Queue: 4 jobs
Job 1
Amino acid sequence: MILTEVDDLGADKEWLRLWRADDHQHANYTVTSLAVGAAHYTRLYYLPAERDVSEYRPCAERFVPHHLLASGPDGPVAGLALTVEVLPGRHRLSAYGRPLMLVEDRTAPARLRRQAAAAIHTRIQELTERYGAERYHARDYLVGGEISPLTEVLLRHGGVSRHHFTQTVDLRPPAEERFAELRKNFRKILRRDRGGFALDVVTARDVTRAHLDDFVRLHLEFFGKTLRTRASWDSILASVRADEGFMVIGRQDDRPVAMAYFAVSDRYCLYASGVNDADSYGSGLSHRVLWRAMEHARALGCVHFELGEQLYPGMYPDLPEKFRAIGHFKAGFSNTTAARLDVFSAPLEAP
């Protein structure tokens, strides 16, 4: 097994070959989506703040890339986007602020996949020691209901796991079948005519800075403050321009009243960010935007559509009610609740 470092994920032919061979292709890990993550940290709600992987930050001071690619006799077997985050007074390993995620060719022999994971883990440990990095964690999407070879190695070396759930939609069934699975009141909203309302999908072919400005304006009007840095907003625009994302805009009498951004790969679409006009909140705009996004993602060839985390009340008793309300809304669209596994390199009680 040959382990190499990749300088540019968007240009390295062997990395791109591996990415195409991965049958999951989570949209959080495309090149431009990683850039979005680099500019906007999101905490893990299932961990108390003092045990979270990092305190809130707009972004790290800088990221030092050490992307890894493990290749066997017939080509790439596994790899991951890996960066060293330079934070005030400390270092952390991540994928540009996101959990590490193994990219794999799952058609490779099991022994080669295990060897690749072992080689990657050894290099991660070397980098941890070199930089004096703190505890890191990897995310396992449990493809096929199995833990990944990297998860296996991490657990055997003293790692600990925490599970959480997310709402997803299998886009393979025809639209009429998926529509029938929607919550009853959702179907009523989508059938109801809304005079003067129109939806547009904005892609790399037609996106402009003006679209982003509308998104920022709606965001500010709804929340009363910005929750993203300018770099984060710019990275969203770059994602759409690179065809690794798209926007859906809802207009009432030609005025933008709802917008959402979706990260996308060849197989996966992720609802990343959305907002409505404050005066239109609760009028069903999000329902229409999300349904249109699902149809566009399916037309692109995506198999999976992820709506976001499901925060069950018994598991998160201290979270504000609004988070559970958001989860309840997402569940009305979803025909699948998927488990995810976060694997930490050291016990959560450790520093």
Note: The chain has a mean pLDDT of 90.
Job 2
Amino acid sequence: MAEITDYSPSSHPSRESIQPGQVTALLDHGASFDGRLSFEGTVRIGGNFQGEIFTNDTLVINPGARVEAQIEADVVIISGAVKGNIFARSRVVMHPPAVFKGTVTTPSLRIDEGVVFEGASYMPKT
């Protein structure tokens, strides 16, 4: 399994790593975006986002981020606050201090100790 490393000051060590050069775009702390985000590659959100997110790749939501969205992606990694519905083709991983409210549909779901999860999960056969 790859390792995701959060490079923010309040990062939580994890066992999966995305190197800085692998990030296609970054909505950093202090930035806000309303609308539809569609991308290829890996995108990190560290600020505020409201709307829809679509990708065939990876979405990383950093600690401190606030996202209210309908999300469709291959992989979603959450360490921030997310409200909405997620459809992930491969997996969803939640690390503390993540707070999730909504519905997750994915074949693989990992919720680490310390995460707040309010909602439902559906894990269809692959």
Note: The longest strand covers residues 81-94.
Job 3
Amino acid sequence: MHFSGIYEYRFVLTGVFSLLFIISQGLAGQSVVVPRPDQEVILVTGSTGGLGREVARRLGSQGAHVIVHGRSSERGNELVEEIIAAGPGSARFYRADFASLQQIRALGERILMDYGRLDVLVNNAGFGSAPNERMVSEDGHELRFQVNYLAGFLLTKLLRPLIVSSQPSRIVNVSSAAQTAIDFDDVMIEKNFSGGRAYAQSKLAQILFTLDLAEEFQGTDVLPVSLHPATYMDTEMVRRAGVEPRTTVDEGADAVMHLIRSPDIVPGQYFRGMEVGNPHDQAHDQGARNLLRILSEGLTGAR
């Protein structure tokens, strides 16, 4: 996304002392709202629908500036307008398809240019188990592994300087209770493929990454955590898989908000809903985490 045309700047007074700069022309035709210097900034990937949308709405209602991300400009801009209209927070939309590493890099670079802080990164974007067919990304990687895991890995690495400079800050990786050990001899699952296996492997990779981040940020006020928000939430992803929903999006959003806000979270923890849980044994295998890190750095070029 690129700025175009001649920008006209105007000041808009919101509330008694709140001052926002608004650029009359911006991304995809939307007005660009710059957060106040004291305003919390939170990026929620995959926030144009389902769980991410509800989390973004709640954060906006708490006064945060929400960076909305998704593939649909229409849905993204609608959510931005909704957040701004409801107040007291603000929002801005960025479009990027996580099936493209180039678009992920462009998203990270744009956020680094446009923002001076990032208090929370919520890696929520995901692709479910359906359809049960092997698909590949623009970069030739198994699609779920890239969208569900590699995208968050790359984006986190790109935004690391902003996250570190914004301490205390958090990284919340939205994973799942569906976890399958990563087969490092066939990470892209070219043999014996199933959508469920691909999804579960990518979700476990997120948890290994979270534990790696906890070690990386040890001694800092950067807090990486992961969670299974709720089982079979009533989302498009679950319905597409032909599964009867068992929980609501509100329940999942409660769990995500808990990890964003609770003062009682320990770096590297994995939650099932609102409670501390136990991930797959491979999550605690240092050798597996090392292999995943080396593989991910090689595939993305990020360090």
Note: Helices lie at 50-61, 73-86, 101-114, 143-165, 195-216, 236-240, 249-261, 286-300.
Job 4
Amino acid sequence: MKEEKNHDTITLGRKTVQLTNLNKIYWPEEGYVKGQMIAYYEHMESYILPYLKNKPISLHRFPNGIDKAGFFQKDVDTETIPAWVKTKAIYSESTDKDVDYIICNDKATLLYMANLGSIEINPWLSTYQKPEHPEFAVLDLDPNGADFQKVIEVTRTAHDIFEQVGVKAFLKTSGSTGLHIYVYVKQKYTFDTTRDFVQWVAQLVHERHPQATSLVRDPKKRKGLIYLDFLQNRRGQTVVAPYSLRPKPKATASTPLFWEELTPKLRITDYTIKTIFQRIEKKDNPWREIWDSPTNIKAVLAKL
């Protein structure tokens, strides 16, 4: 893709992706344009696609850049999107109707979503084939105004707990203000089981940091406290994908980290559309072993 053109076309096999308004500014402060965002996803497809495979996607679209109002989109119009874009109709209890989700399993679909202005990509934790059985259990550490150094300390505690019970956990930045811990569970368990497991870990973390953390969902009741969010572990909930960009200053990316990088020097704003390429060239993939490390949650809970 040539960034200097305002419009372009990419053909991938039998799939043709129309790219439009490539010179439109998406990050005004930095001057980054839509074409740079699409080029990022084009370059990062092999890193991102494994975490999107067969999962319903919620798009966070900013077609006029991050300084204009964005919106979330789950339901797509199957009559107007390209015929090659895979979708899956999934019943929604809240709306009492089927929602047509995009399923992004290939580069063409990834670029199609990016061209819609989808700066941020949010997959389910489960696939459309097994919607009640998540691939990952996730603990989301949301600062909610707390000092980030405290977030680092609390995240270390969570890691210690996972290690103590023999669970291989994986860390990433949210790309916004917090940190995410992922545990691969290979779709063996229901959301009830994974949520109970993460809640148990969150409770232990809270007991060790009672003055700094909260398990209360209402933000008004936990101002300045780190929210240990285990409720993401539900059908239909989404978490920003590894390596997804965020509609934030500097064009930050939700970046997988090595646990050794969880130090006082960690800055979420160091991981951006401009720095990720150099990072993946110089460093091994911190999540390279994630697919080889499924956790047997029931065995862990049985030991306890």
Note: Residues 245 and 253 are 4 Å apart (CA to CA).
